Amino acid sequence: MHEIIKEAVNDMGSALELCKSQKNVVDVVNAVSELNTKEAMKLGMNFKKFPLGCDLTEIVVGTCASDLEKRDLLGNCILANMIGASIHICAYAFADIAEAHGMNGIDIIKEVSAITDVPLDLDHFGHYGPMRFPKEIVKCSGQCYYQGPYFEECPRGRIHSRLFDKEKREEIDKEEWIKLSSSVAVNLTSEQGGEGHAAPIEEAEEVAGLAKKHGKGLEAIMFIGDGYDDLITGFEKALNIGADVFVLEGGPFNNSKNRLDAFAKAVSMARILAPGKVVATNGAYEDECRAGLRAGLNAIITGFPNNHHGYMCGYSPGTARRGIFGLPRVIKMIKEEVKCESTSIPVQREELKALTRAVKIAGPHNIYPHKIGFFEVGDAHWVTLANSNLYKDINIDKTAKNIVNDLKGDSVSLLGGRFVSWVIAKELDGLVDEIIISDMDPWVEKVTVQNLSEELNTNVNGAGSNDKYAAENSKNSIITSTVPQIADKISKKIPGTIKLI
């Protein structure tokens, strides 16, 4: 494991083999720990290419705080929806706002669901449903983040107080909350020594089970802690409960001697280990965020004023405090640190719609965690989108399953080597003699051909990233891109091709 991880820093072939192999948490943590910071960052960015073409960088937005007016909460959600940012639901705040307006908590999430279509990410959810906290917690000024490292628990010793009587009153709606959500987050930090910061692990396990029962994406929140033993505990527990996404909290809960080195390496480790290939942070100082983005971080959870994620990400000791607006600061930071030619940085509503079309064309039964060959089809983003209103409302002309009914001849070319082409190729298997793959990225084309060749009976060949060659050497050509501008451009360049959208 040590040798292949070292090789994977500079060799994508080794990275590919590592991606396909069984991995032991301790071995991965040990091997990445031996790298220097620059090597760890490069390794993490290499692994951001897995799954193929899913190197998204996004923002997830906390829109709520317990003392917001309901109209302000709804306005925040509408704005997040307009820019295509997933909405991070702090369940206790939704319930507090509902109570202030004579409503049940479930009524608020129903209202938000009715006016938005982006994925809804549920957090602070427990045995009875939304966790409920006393005023000294929900109005916390963020002393730990303002003061700086390091803490194992709340500096005032007031976490993890709960108002269980309030929670029990709405237990009847517990599963309905999860049904309305796209993904669910659970906190594992009580296993890492932070008993005062999170609910008991048994409660997290119960909620994780409900998320899996209803087919939702599952996120595991863990501290950076000491950057070694604590991470091992967090990663192992996350894998044990079936988490798809790893969420790393730094800030005052990054107790390592070299904070930035530890944060970058934790992101790199998580990129290798996370089953859903998505790594996020819910709390990290500005320098940690930047180091994490350079190491392959997918997402930063930020927030509107008064939401705690507003100050937990992107600020620094002495500036991080309740009331500030994290969203614009985090967007600027991402734009400065991440370069990507294929998507906006961070991804926006049009990319979200394109990805949703891809999920709908492929079909939920084909996507992550299901595999074609050695690799899952898509990543954890695909699961959350399949559970969103955007998925329900978006229209498509063709699916991977029914497009094969329109094809005639002995060969088909697929223009685009990403996951939609994988699913179409699987549907074509045995119906045609040859499938030709063309992708603008030669490496993606090569790996796609290799993976499909090992999985399918039909011959699969590459086109040298030449769409025209692929079309000229096949009876039918399908444009697999779900981005309208790209599909239209290819269609005009190569007449006679079939578009999915």
Outline, from the CA principal axes? globular
Rg, Cα atoms, Å: 23 Å
Compute the average pLDDT.
94
The end-to-end distance, rounded to whole angstroms, is 43 Å
Q: In percent terms, what proportion of residues is strand?
A: 15-25%
Helix content: 40-55%
Total beta strand runs: 17
Strand line-up across the major sheet:
1-2-3-6-7-8-9-10
| CATH topology label of the largest domain | TIM Barrel
Query: How many distinct folded domains?
Result: 3
- The low-confidence runs, each spanning 5 or more residues with pLDDT under 50, are none
Most strands sheet: 8 strands, parallel, barrel
* CATH hierarchy, class of the largest domain: Alpha Beta
Give me the secondary-structure topology.
Elements: H1 2-8, H2 12-20, H3 25-33, H4 37-47, E1 58-62, H5 70-83, E2 86-90, H6 91-100, H7 105-115, E3 120-123, E4 125-126, E5 129-130, H8 135-138, H9 143-147, H10 164-169, H11 174-180, E6 183-187, H12 201-213, E7 217-225, H13 229-240, E8 245-254, H14 259-273, E9 278-283, H15 286-294, E10 299-303, H16 309-312, H17 326-337, H18 349-362, E11 371-372, E12 375-376, H19 380-386, H20 389-393, H21 400-403, E13 411-415, H22 419-428, E14 434-438, H23 442-455, E15 459-462, H24 467-472, E16 476-479, H25 484-493, E17 498-499
Parallel strand pairs: 1-2, 1-10, 2-3, 3-6, 6-7, 7-8, 8-9, 9-10, 13-14, 13-16, 14-15, 16-17
Antiparallel strand pairs: 4-5, 11-12
Helix pairs in contact: 1-2, 1-3, 3-14, 4-14, 5-7, 6-7, 14-15, 18-19, 18-22
